Prior knowledge:
Largest sheet of chain B: 4 strands, parallel
CATH superfamily of chain A: Carbon-nitrogen hydrolase
Number of strands of chain A: 14
Distance between the termini of chain A: 64 Å
Shape of chain B: globular
Structural class of chain A: alpha/beta
CATH class of chain A: Alpha Beta
Oligomer: heterodimer
CATH architecture of the largest domain in chain B: 3-Layer(aba) Sandwich
CATH class of the largest domain in chain B: Alpha Beta
Radius of gyration of chain B: 24 Å
Number of domains of chain B: 2
Strand order of the largest sheet of chain A: 5-4-3-2-1-14
Order of helices and strands of chain A: EHEHHEEEHEEHEHEEEEEEHHH
Largest sheet of chain A: 6 strands, mixed
Structural class of chain B: mainly alpha
Largest interface: A-B, 22 and 20 residues
Strand content of chain B: 5-15%
Number of helices of chain B: 12
CATH superfamily of the largest domain in chain B: HUPs
Amino acid sequence: MKLTIAQAQIRPKKRDYDYNLSLISDLFAQMAPDLPDLLALPETCLSGYFLEGGVIEAARTADQVFSDLQAEFLRRTSAHKPIYGERSRTMDIVIGFYERAGGNLYNSSLYATLGPNPGIAHIHRKFFLPTYGVFDEKRFVSRGRSFQSFDTRLCRSAMLICEDLWHSISATLLALEGALIIYVGAASPARGFRGEEIDNIARWRRLLITAAEEHNLFIAFTSLVGFEGGRGLVGNSMLVGPNGEILNEAPSAKDYLLRTTIDPEDITVARARSPMVADLQAVLGDLALELNQLAEKAEKTQNEPKPS
Amino acid sequence: MSQSPPEKEPPIEEIRAGLPDPESDEPLRLNLPLVASWLEGFLRDELRRRGFHNAIIGLSGGVDSTTTAFLCARALGPEHVIALRLPYKTSSPESLAHAQLVIDQLGLRSDTIDITPAVDGYLAQVPEADGRRRGNVMARMRMILLFDQSEKYQALPIGTGNKTERLLGYFTWHGDDAPPINPLGDLFKTQVWALARYLGLPPVIIEKVPTADLVVGQTDEADLGITYAKADRILHYLLQGYSVEQLAERGFPMPDLLTVRKRLDSTHWKRALPTTAMLSSTAIGQYYLRPVDY
C-alpha cells in the first residue's frame, strides 16, 4: 500500500494556541481536495519551542489537542466528499506539543487518526531532554521513560523528538520493535555558519541518512522555522528512504508543505539486500547481556562512597 | 651470476595534521552569503513580530553601523531604513561624510541632529569630567536621541555592536548596547569586516582605522591594547573553554592572552541586566522566567 506523507514546516506564534491551531486548520483546508494519508508537524508547534517557565501556561492535555484537531479537521474538510477510489475522509496526524499529563509537563508528540473513526494511537514523551548551551529542557519538563513502536491503520510507526534521534540507540530500539517509519519532530536553532549549509542542518542530514540506512526504514523529519528571541529555527524538513536516500526536502527558514508518496515495500527490498536489522535481532541476547553489565557497573559506580 | 636485490619501494607518503595555528583566521571563516541571508531573515522576522515596518540606525560612518544599514536595506528595502547622523562638535568630518556616502549609495531616509548643545549643556556643569566620562555622556545622548527619533519615525532601533566589543566590554553600558535587536552581536569584528566586503560597503569605510570617534585621535585597537585580529582568535578559543595556559602552549603570546582574559573577566556585568536583590521564589529572571518574545 502506497502512502502519501505530508510534512508541514511552519512558524507558530509564541504561546498563541488558538492562532497556531488555526494555522493547522488552514492546512486541513488547503489539503482537503487531496488529503494525504498523514500530516506530520514539528516539535512544540502549538506554542513555539523556547518558553522557559511559560511551559506551564502553554501546555495542553493530549485529549484537548486531539479533540481540537478532530473538530477543525471535520469543519475544514467536510465540504469535500470522498471521491471514487478514495479510502475515506480520514487522515492521520503527528503533532508536537507541550503536554500536561498526570501532574507533570512533557515535551510530547501525539499520533492520532482524524475523521469518521478518530482516536489517539500513541503519545511519545521526549526521552532525551537537551539541557546544555541554548537548551534548558530538564528545568521545565519531565522526561519520557520509553521508546515504543505502535500499529496504525497505515503501518507500524514510531515517533521521536529532536535530541531523541541524536542518540543512535533510539532508532535502533524502534527498528527492533518493528517500526517501518519514524516521525521525528524538531525545533533546531541555527548555529555554525562556516560550511555550505548551517552546521546543525548538516548534522541532521548525517543523522537522518545514517539512521534510515542502518535500519532500512523511512524517517520523516519535520522541523519548525521562525526566529524565537534571535534564535532562528532552521526547518529543512526532509523525508529519508530505507536506503538513506533523501526523497523530499524543504529549504531552510521558510514555511513549506512537503508531500511525498512512499511505498513501505521498499523496506523489504532494502532489507533483503542489507539485512542489518535482522543481524541485530540475531545477536540481541548477547547485546542485552553487555548492556546489563554496563548498567550494573554504572549503578555500582554511582553507589560507591566518594573519596574524602 | 647472482640476482640483483629487488628494488626498494619508495617510502609511503605521509600526511600530517596538527593543532590549530594561532596565526590562522580559518576558525573564524564564515559562509558570508549564508550569514547575510540569515541576518536579513532575522531582521524581517523581528520587525514583523514587534509590529514595525521601519528600522532606525545611528549611522556613524564606521564599518559596524554601515554593515547594519546594508543588511537592513537588503532585508526591509531602503525606504524602510532611517539613518540618523548624530555628530558632536569634535566628531571627525570624515565620519559624517562617510555616513552620507552610505545614505546616498543605499538611498536611505536620513536625518542629522547635532548632539553638541545637549551634551555641552550637561558637561558645562561638570568641567572636571575626563575624556571617558565625556565619551559615555555622548554615547548615552545618542541613545536618547535614537529612541526618541524611533517614536517619531515609528521605527525599531537597531543595535550595531559586534561580538568582540561586547566581550571586551568596549562599549557604553545602556548606551550603544540599548537597542532591542542587534544583527551583528554574534559576529567578531574581523567577521564583520568580512561581511562588509561581501555586502559591498565602500572600501574607504572598510579600510579605515576603527574608532569610537569620542575623542580626537582615538583608535579602538590603541584603547584595547591589542589588534582585533589577535583578540578575535583568542576570544574564539577562550569562549570554547580553552584556558589561557592551554592557548599559551599552542603558541598564543601570554601578554595578548592576559589582555583579553582580563577584559573578558572584568566586564561580565556589562553583558547582563541590572542585578536585583532576590527575596522571593518568584524573582524575575531567577524563578519567573519568560523569553523575550513570550
